[in-house]
Structure formats: C-alpha cells, structure tokens
Amino acid sequence: MAHPKRYNLALVSCAMHQPMYAAVFAQHPQLNIVKVVDDPGQDAFVVSQNQKIAALYGVPYEEGIDRLLDDRQIDVCSVATQIERRGGISAKLAAAGKHLWMDKPNAATLREADAIVAAVRRSGVRTLVYGLHHTAATQRARASLRNGALGQLLSIHWDVIFAKGEAGTLPDGWRTAISPDLTRFTFRCEHGDPSGSGHNVWAKRELHEIGLYPIGLARYLAQSDVTSVYGQLGQYFLKTHADRGLEDFALMHVTFANGVTATVTTGRFGRLTDPGAGVNRGRLVGTRGSLVIDGVAPHALIYGAPDAGGGTDFRQTLPETGGLRESVAHLVECLESGRDSDSTAEDGRAQVEALLAGYASYFAGRPISLPLTRG
Hints:
375 residues, 2 domains, 10 helices
C-alpha cells in the first residue's frame, strides 16, 4: 500500500497568528514543518517569535523570503506576516508555485488581493484563507441549507466580537474619530500585549481584522457575490483604539446578488466584558424555518414547520474546536484531490473587497455598490 504523500511546509513569518497554525500543522501526518522564514529588518518581537517557533519545532530560521521562490523542497507556505506585508508576499509565493495557507485577511488592498488571484490562476496552486468555515456550528448551518430544512435562504445575521484587551475609559463627551488612513492596520508595542491578541500590539483595525470572520461566513452560506455594503464604525470600548483613530466596533448591512441580505457586527469589547472568548452567534432566516447558532456555547437551534426536514423543535450540542484542525485537514484534502478549498484566494479577495467597501461606506455616509475600483 502506498504511503500518503507528505508536504513540506515553510512558516513564513510568525508576526501574527502563525504559532496557532503551526501547532495544528505539526499534528497533521501529511504536513512536515521544514523551516521558518522571514525578511530581514523585522522588529524585535517578530524576530524573537520567529526564533522561538523555529526552536520549538526543531527547524532552522532563515532570513530572506525570496529564497523560497526557487526552493523546490517547499510545497506549502503558511503566510502570517503583518497585514501590510501579506498581499505582496503571498502573490510572489503563489507565482512561484507554492500552495498557500494565508492568515486573514489575506491582503490589505484590493490591488494586492487581485495580484494573488492572478498568480494563483497562472500557477494552479491550491489556496486557503483562514476563517470560521469549518467550525461545527457553521457546518451545521450549511447542512441545514443544503437539506432544505430552512427552505430558501432570505437573510443572515452574524455577531463575532472578541473579548480581548483592556477596555480603558473614554472621556466624557467623547465623539468617534476614525482615521481614514487605510495604509496601516496594526500598531505594535515593544512590551506587553494590551490588545490581548498574542502578538504585542496596542490595537488593530477591527473591521479588517475580525470582520473577515462574519463576512466570510455570510458569503459562504449565501453562496453569492456581494453587491452593496452599508457600514458604520465606532469607538465604544477600547481607549487603545480610540487614541489611534481605530474602530473597536463595526456594523455592516450587506446585499448579495441572489437577493439574500445579511447584517454583521464585529469588533472587540475587552476581556472583562465576557468570561470566555466573546461572541460568535449567527441567525439564518429562510422561507420554511430559521436557525440560531451559538458558536461559543456551542449549540444550534432550528425552528420550522414539521415537514421542513428538521422537525418543529431541534436542539444539538456541537463539539467545537474553532475549526482550525478541520481547515488544515481540508487544505490537505484539496492538495491530494487538486480541487479548490472552501475559502480560496478568490474568496479572500471578495472578503477584502467587502471590508474595504464597509470603510468606504462609513466615510461616504452612504451605501457603496460593488465592485470597487482597484486600490
């Protein structure tokens, strides 16, 4: 019997969520972590993280990401650089024929996201942008849509809000002041981790950082392209964000080409607000029933007509791992079969476009139609 193929994997920077991903990569029998790679000139925290993770898995730490382009030893690259660097690096690696696991969001601008898609189309590599697609709750929702339990999907609402960071106190009479500068998404600090993110940052733009989760889920469930977005941003909880002109909360109303509408709320409200990780809750409404999901508890509730496929009263407790292990297994299955993942570079591009439309809508004070012009 032939042994399953093993894929050599390079961890491209540990600036952001790479330690979390690497722990799961290391447990998959077909993935072999070979090295940690980053470009020279990174700040002390990133270099320290790179060295720490390389030592943890007993692999070398090398400087010079471009050295990967001609490295035939490497099959897959996990790109977890800072958001501001992520798009250009991912496009180069895809053009060089490397399969990609990409931290979310996979690009800072639409131009960068387009470049990744173009490179992937030319090279034919497999890609996966991390999201919450493979959590038990999301997969239960997808199954309910496929088996007709809800009838035709009409609308989606999803809340993803993290309980991380120190709330602080905003002064009396504070008025929201969101910076329109979308060239910087992450504000790193030298010591400590005020945001609770695990990578020494004061604050991040939360619509771009966390908003990808509910937007990605809404697209995945609606199975359609976004045609318009209306967004609102706020500074309600975190002084670290307000001091830097960054939103800690966002709300978006989204319309899809197939007529489905969705609303999402996202952001960060401080670790003392919730004893757990925060909120991950969805509601789906169809012509024959509705589905209420709590991805943190977790449980799923379905209410509908007796012939809707799920009964009039259904409750299921779901084992939950955050979907990371399942997403890694899904990528390997795609490598084996040559098929696209459930969250490709093209899906990542669509998510980035919707998020940028949310910012554009807030600053314009009106709904924004898609597609956006490149930028």
